[in-house]
Design brief:
By secondary structure, this protein is an alpha/beta fold. It is 21% helix and 33% strand. The chain has a single domain, classed as Cytidine Deaminase, domain 2. Strand 6, helix 3 and strand 7 form a beta-alpha-beta unit. It starts with 23 loop residues before the first strand and ends with a strand.
């Protein structure tokens, strides 16, 4: 079975007016989950990464995303490189295929422990490969500097995106 991200399925986006002038909305709990993952990577002197699961909506200003969860799997990584472990891809595919109906992969996150929040050439290629200019985001976290930045999917040159952190109920 082909994972959802690879299926090429396109669907009409539901119309919903966004709550604020932002392109990405993320619950505080998901931010804390990502920060904890990045802190663990810092302790082990390695980068971490995962996927952002959520919904894409459309309003008069265009598309925007609301994150619902973050998923990851076993990683191959060191201080300056990270990728999903090729021997554990079935767990990641299962997580993707287990996404609730109507959800998409709306982004990905990764850490730059001690290097700051920017998109490297490899990051830009990854972002372009995942989203190709469609609605999608890259969240970069530096757990050592306690920084986080979100980038859009402008092909070849992702720009800073505005994110709103949603308080948990």
């Amino acid at each position: 079975m082909t994972p959802n991200i690879l299926s090429g399925e396109t669907r009409e986006r539901p119309y919903a007016k966004r709550r604020a002038a932002a392109d990405l909305f993320m619950p505080e709990a998901v931010i804390m989950q990502i920060a904890a993952h990045a802190d663990l990577g810092l302790e082990e002197d390695r980068e971490v990464m995962g996927l952002l699961i959520g919904r894409i909506y459309e309003d008069d200003k265009g598309e925007y995303a609301v994150v619902e969860d973050a998923v990851t799997s076993k990683l191959e990584s060191d201080r300056a490189m990270v990728r999903f472990d090729r021997d554990d891809m079935s767990a990641l595919v299962d997580a993707i295929d287990g996404m609730p109906p109507g959800t998409d992969i709306v982004g990905w996150y990764h850490s730059h422990p001690g290097y700051g929040c920017f998109m490297s050439e490899t990051d830009v290629r990854t972002q372009d490969g995942l989203f190709g200019g469609a609605c999608g985001f890259a969240l970069v976290v530096d757990p050592k500097r306690k920084e986080m930045a979100v980038f859009d999917s402008n092909p070849g040159s992702p720009g800073i995106a505005i994110m709103v952190i949603l308080e948990d109920d």
